[in-house]
Design goal:
Elements lengths: L6 E2 L4 E6 L2 E6 L1 H7 L2 E5 L6 E2 L4 E7 L3 E5 L4 E6 L2 H4 L3 H4 L8 E5 L11 H14 L1
Antiparallel strand pairs: 1-2, 2-3, 3-9, 4-6, 5-8, 6-7, 8-9
Length: 130
């Protein structure tokens, strides 16, 4: 369910690293909790994001949720397709619905995130305690 080559946060974001670039999105668990997504706000290209800090929001019919940066870096690309089709977050959160791409400021930050197995266990724990 959760791609094994991604790393995950406790706030339900994912990052896929390729070289010095990280692609960031929200997890399937996050989109499921949000419900039908109607709007996504992302930073502009060139914006600096900091690990653990808010870099955007996802608005659903239920609520507005903040998106936290899993690592620090500079935004190199934002997924423009989500402006006209934010519901893609509900149908393909780990693929077509990536949010931003960044140039990693400190690649070592990635090692502090959960791997797929740890994230799956984290989510399972939340579901059983809910």
């Amino acid at each position: 369910m959760y791609p094994s080559d991604y790393r995950y946060t406790k706030e339900h974001e994912w990052i896929k690293v390729s070289g010095g670039t990280g692609t960031i999105g929200i997890t399937d668990y996050a989109q499921h909790e949000l419900g039908d997504v109607v709007f996504v706000e992302m930073p502009a290209v060139g914006a600096k994001i900091t690990a653990g800090q808010v870099f955007g929001t996802v608005e659903s019919v239920k609520a507005v949720s903040e998106i936290y940066a899993p690592v620090s870096g500079e935004v190199t690309e934002a997924n423009a397709a989500l402006s006209s089709a934010p519901e893609t977050l509900n149908t393909d959160p780990h693929g077509a619905a990536w949010l931003i791409k960044i140039k990693l400021a400190n690649p070592a930050e990635v090692s502090g995130l959960m791997d797929a197995a740890a994230y799956q266990a984290f989510v399972s724990e939340k579901e059983t305690s809910a």
